[in-house]
Write a structure and sequence with these properties.
alpha/beta, Rossmann fold, 6-stranded parallel beta sheet, globular
Length: 552
Amino acid sequence: MKVSDLFVKSLENEGVQYIFGVPGEENEDLLFSLESSSIQFVPTRHEQGAAFIANVWGRLTGKAGVCLSTLGPGATNLLTGVADANLDKAPLVAITGQGGLTRLHHESHQYIDIVSMFKPVTKWNTSIAAAESVTEIVRKAFKVAEYEKPGATHIELSEDIAKQEVKRKLTPIRPQRVRRSSPDYKAISRTIELLKEAERPLFLAGNGAIRKLASKHLTQFAEKYNVPVVCTFMGKGAISDRMDQSLFAIGLGLKDYVMEAVEAADLVLAIGYDIAEYDPEEWNPASNKKIVHIDFVPAEVHTYYDPEVEIVGDISGALWELNAKVGEEKIKFDYEWYKPIRLRILDDIASYDLKDGGAITIPGTINIIREILDDDSLLISDVGTHKVWIARNFPVYCPNACIISNGLASMGISLPGAIAASLIAPERQVVAVMGDGGFLMNSQELETAKRLGVGFTVVIVNDNDYGLISWKQRMSKGRSVSTKISNPDFKIYAQSFGIKAYQPNGLNELREQLHSAITSKELCLVEVLVDPSVNDALVEKLNEYWRESNVN
């Protein structure tokens, strides 16, 4: 048996269904070994697209998505998607080819030190130097990638090692479930004491609150004891936004209505919160909040995030114990303090409903999409102005119903990500929302989607601008510079791939064509020309609200 054959058997042993990537000479043996396996290799049109598909696969399933590239430029192209997965806590295993080991000690065609390059953006990585290490390396790559907190790992397989014959009989190592540790009883007791002292506790639900049943126990606690929940962009869906306890999302970058609740809270219970998602200086600027850190790993050392107590271990287990203890102690909180804030948020979201003859805006378009989508559907956001509006205004009713990259926050993720989502659950409604800038970063993956026969809706909100940067520049300098771009005819572009496309003109066509595209569950593209003035108007509205609040 060749090393490449054993490598593939080890991947099968991990339950890998798909590998996404771009073929090259240096991974030739691996590709031919895959040909007769149960794993489907999916050629993509760019390595970054492959990594983003694997990234979202891992985030939605909890099982590592797998991407593949050759050496040199293939590996450098893969890097952004791998780094995004690592900072977004999405399990991913990247495989790269490499030239023969006999030429790597000197300057050589397409050679770079890939292992060193990937080291800063992965949890663990290595190069296979001996045939006998294959089964251990593959098992470790998946175990490390999937264990909390999840992230990316990387394996380099050189062309000469891939060709070698394995001299002794080896079999893949069976994956074993690793039980997560129970929370420390002293940390639970100290948290109960803090809850007894609190009148207005608040949950800050981060990315980790989506995983490992944490959402179920967080929902039970919030509902039973009337404790409000604020989610980070990546924590959206930790509880249903239909619940009275939901205060939607935090992280806008300017002071939004939800900050009123954070400021009034006398205890913040941070659940699965990563400071990479949202800088704690933004919500705890005086560094005086009482904080309970509940996560799989200890808190990062940060001036503005200094917990009173850390419950390190299984998040679900911690919430389950807190649920029981609060009930036993008959602890009660102020049930009314946050309700006016929730009503203000809901009223504000509704205020963006589009009107006949009025401008078409991103938040108004998002409201229409929400009306059309089923409760368990999925919206994947790219990075740009629309990300802010989706995080702020798009209600989510279950975990993993809204995917936002807010760790590395890479443009170009949503279209490839929708391919992963559609492969995982073909019956699910999937919408990928992106700006014109993000779309053209990975638009070539439309061909991959068409070839695979997957069905989802691409919504391009087009302002012919790098709109988020333009918006931030105006907030900072009062004007924008170097952000204007031009675009092709997106409808014709999509049709050239054999994809149904729409360019609605006016509110009625927008509503009808979005409904037709989304409910068809076919691969469709809808281009929406949007008025960006709503962005500056939001800043003015919030500034005025806080000025009046301070006066009052």
